User: Fold 1-deoxy-D-xylulose 5-phosphate reductoisomerase from Thermoflavimicrobium daqui.
Amino acid sequence: MSEKVVILGSTGSIGTNTLEVIRQHPEEFTVVALAAGTNVEEMIKQAKAYRPKVVSMATKEAAEKVRFALDDSIQVLYGEEGLLEVATYHEATFVVSAIVGSRGLAPTLAAIQAGKKIGLANKESLITAGHIITEAAKKAGVPILPIDSEHSALFQCLNGERKQDVQRLIVTASGGAFRDWSREQLVNATPADALKHPNWSMGPKVTVDSATLMNKGLEVMEAHWLFGFPYEQIEVLIHPQSIIHSMVEFHDGAIMAQLGSPDMKVPIQYALSYPKRLPLSGEPLDFVQISRLDFRKPDFVQYPCLKMAYEAGRAGGTMPTVLNAANEVAVEQFLAGEIPFLAIEHKVEEALSSHQWIPHPSLSEIEEADRWAREFAKKIKIAHV
Ligand SMILES: NC(=O)C1=CN([C@@H]2O[C@H](COP(=O)(O)OP(=O)(O)OC[C@H]3O[C@@H](n4cnc5c(N)ncnc54)[C@H](OP(=O)(O)O)[C@@H]3O)[C@@H](O)[C@H]2O)C=CC1
Ligand SMILES: CC(=O)[C@@H](O)[C@H](O)COP(=O)(O)O
Ligand SMILES: [Mn+2]
Assistant:
């Protein structure tokens, strides 16, 4: 029987890669519902090609344009209500959560509570409300299958192993667009510079997060929530080639690593078809051509966002929520040309140090902390950066 798939964020980088995996395996997967923001043209193309039963757009205006282009057999919804309807669509068995940012939290939680298997790319929802998502998944008895490449790698390396035999998780980082830039050079870094990721083609927000290494900080927290290890057992290692996607070291000194070309279709395929593996088109990894793999330790002075993420993760409660929300606002402002690159870390730092920490927040307290951090981060003046 085929998996009935919903994609939240279908028009984005993860969304389009997911549709490509599905296109290569029509016998395994059927697309039943899609949700996106405002990319009308891409949604019309996808709806015509995959014939879902329902689609939803972020705004009424976008939905009307999509509806105009499709026949009546595809229902077109919009707004928060439409998104939740798609996330919990009755026929769906598997929901790919690939909206960018913590706005992915509500639909991801709703999909879990509706008993859908989750393929999780939207790391921000897990950072923002880790205990709420993991408890909801446990209660509903649904698996959260990682799509993020490092977590897919860790998931594969941990397969069949006992947790108590693990020494540490080693999360690899490319170092992002500014891997070889000095702090002095970063003062003048532009959005165009930050968007030149050395290895991966991704959406703008995660690409900027790669450049600050906030992405790696978020991924350390993501690993904590997905696999249940304390922060002391989760390390980051800079690996410029992005060939080793992460590793697990065991107490006997053995290390398991998952390798592959930097192609998100591989972890997406693994999440969708777990525990099977399906063939994918693409060139096999050529070790002779790669010839070497390099590593170095990340430096907390060079990458304060990584340091703040470890601290926020260890503090727990509402600190990760605030870190994530302030970062989302700052990245958006940077991409809009409103603030310099180094103001991102400055805004996150200010928000964390001004926040009234709540140790065991409810969902509404998380939503309130997220709202507070966004407003606070927007208002921070950056003249002295
Ligand atoms: N790209 C990658 O390779 C990887 C991404 N991730 C994570 O996956 C998530 C998605 O990243 P990525 O695909 O790169 O991002 P993109 O920016 O490429 O895509 C974001 C998607 O979210 C949709 N969206 C935005 N706002 C709304 C809204 N209000 N309602 C509904 N949908 C909305 C966009 O729709 P529209 O364009 O129509 O406005 C788009 O489909 C992020 O959390 C990222 O960290 C993790 C690992 C790798
Ligand atoms: C592809 C993927 O999973 C991204 O999250 C990736 O990790 C970005 O690369 P770096 O953050 O290592 O630069
Ligand atoms: Mn990743």
